[in-house]
Write a structure and sequence with these properties.
Shape: elongated
Structural class: mainly alpha
Mean pLDDT: 91
Distance between the termini: 39 Å
Number of domains: 1
Oligomer: single chain
Helix content: over 70%
Strand content: under 5%
Length: 176
């Protein structure tokens, strides 16, 4: 179990690096597009579509890293009022519901990707990118996010991680 958690953690970190590189590449392509359009006064064909697909892919692929680092928005008002054992139950409930949601999106995304692959869908632009390429980031990212949720649930059950990152001393009474 500990090896699984470590493997998923390392994979999520790699996803974070890949997502950051995708964002960096997007910035560079936008700069190149601005140069082409406004300095050289030529038209750009592929840049806008490329950047759009790349940023969306970076969002999906980077999501396991965001979950790993707790970089998402987390409202901890209710957990602050709960005792530690209720925090654990709430964290497990929220993680299981989120895991189910991610699994459904991953499964549906795979079906959507496969349909684009089988039907050889291309974009409506002049570039005519094969849509299975950018669509792959949806099932891939949500599958990895599901694996990260499983690792988080295991960490909560093993006691390796505190629910919501709050210790037993973190309560509304102690903060006043």
């Amino acid at each position: 179990m500990k090896k699984y958690i470590q493997f998923v953690s390392n994979t999520s970190k790699l996803c974070g690096i890949v997502a950051a590189l995708m964002i960096l590449l997007s910035v560079l392509v936008v700069c190149q597009m601005v140069w082409i359009r406004y300095v050289l006064e030529e038209s750009s064909i592929w840049q806008t579509e490329f950047v759009t697909y790349l940023l969306i892919s970076a969002t999906f692929i980077g999501s396991p890293y965001v979950l790993l680092t707790r970089g998402h928005v987390n409202v901890d008002l209710i957990p602050l009022y709960l005792k530690q054992h209720w925090r654990l139950r709430l964290a497990l409930f929220a993680s299981v519901v989120s895991l189910l949601f991610c699994f459904i999106i991953a499964y549906t995304g795979f079906e959507f990707w496969y349909e684009a692959w089988e039907a050889n869908w291309v974009s409506d632009s002049i570039w005519e990118v094969r849509l299975w390429i950018p669509y792959f980031s949806l099932p891939f990212g949500f599958t990895l996010l599901s694996l990260q949720y499983v690792a988080d649930i295991l960490s909560l059950l093993r006691g390796d991680e505190m629910p919501f990152g709050l210790s037993a001393e973190d309560t509304m009474e102690s903060s006043t």
